Amino acid sequence: MKSINIQISDERWLGLQARADRWGVSIEELLSRVVEKVAHDPHKPFVPWQPKKRVFIDTNVLALIVGNTSLGKSVIKHLEDSGIEAITFSKCVYELYSLLKGTTSDRRDKKSRNNHPLKDFLQPQINDIGQKLFRNTNIDHKANTYYWFDLCEEWMWSDYFESYEELIQKYCVQSGQEEAREMLALQKNFVDWKIALRQAFSEVNKKISDNGVTVFHYFEVFGSDWYQFEGFSWEQAFAQDSLLPNEDFELVLAAIALQANAFVTSDDSDLIWRGGLSLGLNSPHVSFCCPERIKEAIDTDFAFRFYRREQKSE
To answer: Per-residue pLDDT averaged across 115-133, rounded?
Structure first.
């Protein structure tokens, strides 16, 4: 094996560390690229590669992608064709989980539920069970069965229900057997719901991975040096000096921390316009873009702050 000796001055080393932090890569990954370049042509001055452009995918657009909708597929295609990396934040994935628990109705009417991009991740009968268990606070007269949502996993792979049916017949008085069987049926519903949700969560994760969307996690943003020295100040500014919705400013903060060129969201009024405009001119540049106009944003190199739906660029 051929060895390569590379001498890097302290000043250059600090520069490489700063560049690695700015691009969100490890110093080892950056140095591996140095070795690759030097090995290819040791007499040519090393010029670090330019990082890929990135766009941040908000929850509502992530649902379109995971749900395999035509608009979601269009967003991914335009990004792939342009060599742009799609990223998101773990909170967005958790919000998809929450929609499934809730379950895909997004607290709206039946028509909206039937059109929801995640509607096919749960069978209709499971969705109906979930609606009943999740929303009805009086599913039993004591209203204390929600703890079964976690406990029910202990019942999945045993003869629990068969055994309890025998116990009901053996130990319950005749007048109490009907109520006991109703509670047992409720427990079965929790099991069916939880199994279906586990499968749906796994399918969501697979769809995200299959579409090439990289998920970044809380510790990668809020445990970084950037957050300690710069990001915390922006967090305070977003909370106090912007009109970003409270549930979204940490997503915008993550997009800035991860150096996304654009924040792609379907929240056209609250997030793209009201929130984005209130950030002010001194905030880090990130374009707020609706999914319908992602190609235009790419073609203009994310030059504008806003790409609203059916609006001229601002």
So the answer is: 83
Q: Would 206 be classed as within a structural domain?
A: no
Within this chain, do residues 252 and 239 fall inside the same structural domain, yes or no? yes
The tally of CA atoms less than 13 A away on the side-chain side of residue 137 is: 0
Q: Compute CA distances 200 → 44, 110, 146, 206, 207, whole Å.
A: 52, 20, 20, 10, 10
- Residues 46 and 252: beta-carbon distance below 8 Å: no
Does 107 have pLDDT greater than 60? Answer: no
Flag whether pLDDT at 6 surpasses 80.
no
Residue 101, pLDDT above cutoff 70: yes
**Does 144 share its domain with 187?**
yes
Task: Phi first, then psi: give them for residue 213, nearest 5 degrees.
Answer: -90, 125
Structure tokens at 16: 């490489």
Does 143 lie in the same domain as 159?
yes
**Cα 302 to chain center, whole Å?**
22
> Do both 47 and 189 map to the same domain?
no
Considering its fold, how many domains does the chain have in total? 3
Query: Three-state DSSP class for 271?
Result: helix
Same domain, yes or no, for 300 and 219? yes
The pTM score is: 0.76
Is pLDDT at 232 greater than 80 in this prediction?
yes
Give me the CATH number covering residue 234: 3.40.50.1010
Quote the domain boundaries for residue 16.
1-51
CA distance 208 to 206: 5
Average of per-residue pLDDT across 163-169: 72
289: DSSP letter: E
Spatial distance between the Cα atoms of 56 and 93, rounded to a whole number of angstroms:
13
In the chain, the percentage of residues whose pLDDT exceeds 70 is 71
